[in-house]
Amino acid sequence: AQSVSQHNHHVILSEAASLELGCNYSYGGTVNLFWYVQYPGQHLQLLLKYFSGDPLVKGIKGFEAEFIKSKFSFNLRKPSVQWSDTAEYFCAVNAPPRNMLTFGGGTRLMVKP
Amino acid sequence: DSGVTQTPKHLITATGQRVTLRCSPRSGDLSVYWYQQSLDQGLQFLIQYYNGEERAKGNILERFSAQQFPDLHSELNLSSLELGDSALYFCASSVDGGLYTDTQYFGPGTRLTVL
Lengths: 113, 115
Prior knowledge:
The structure holds two protein chains of two kinds.
Chain A: E1 3-5, E2 10-14, E3 19-21, E4 24-26, E5 32-38, E6 44-50, E7 56-58, E8 64-68, E9 73-78, E10 87-94, E11 102-103, E12 107-112
Parallel strand pairs in A: 2-12
Antiparallel strand pairs in A: 1-4, 3-9, 5-6, 5-10, 7-8, 8-9, 10-11, 10-12
Chain B: E1 5-7, E2 10-13, E3 19-24, E4 31-38, E5 42-50, E6 53-57, E7 64-68, E8 74-78, E9 87-94, E10 105-106, E11 110-114
Parallel strand pairs in B: 2-11
Antiparallel strand pairs in B: 1-3, 3-8, 4-5, 4-9, 5-6, 7-8, 9-10, 9-11
């Protein structure tokens, strides 16, 4: 079974700072990788996903993530965060053929104006 | 708004009781997934239904059951409730259930509080 680790539980940044959230997974086979965001009081929304091809994936709202297979990592990045990025971020994987998602523990990001 | 609806938004009940959570998938989606989000366990996959049939099962307790109806809405039944069942229960839907590349769209969740 696959597992996902997000090492940063809480991150506090000032506006315009750069963001990198770590995600590592444990699984020996092919995986698909996702980042979801949960704004306060809202549902989970997909930020970006990686299935194959270019390991650098661009998502919505200026986010991107890089899949490094040798490190089993899929870190999320944003060059300059805004106050509106305050949310909880979840990394998730699924392993074909099933579409059940395994989530990491989440990272709460607070951006100070 | 993802197009996935869940009712009720909040549910407060007592230990030992039974509750039913309802989910309506996005129009055209055939698969429904249930997830539980709790402070100690995080976000965990419970069960998936595809076009009325169970497709995959995760860490779902025997006290919990689900079904998907012909109109594709789904219900999650939780019985003999315990304090530890207090959590946010999310439903998600996707177009298909056999394609692991399908994006899952999440509903707003039902917050269950067991007193």
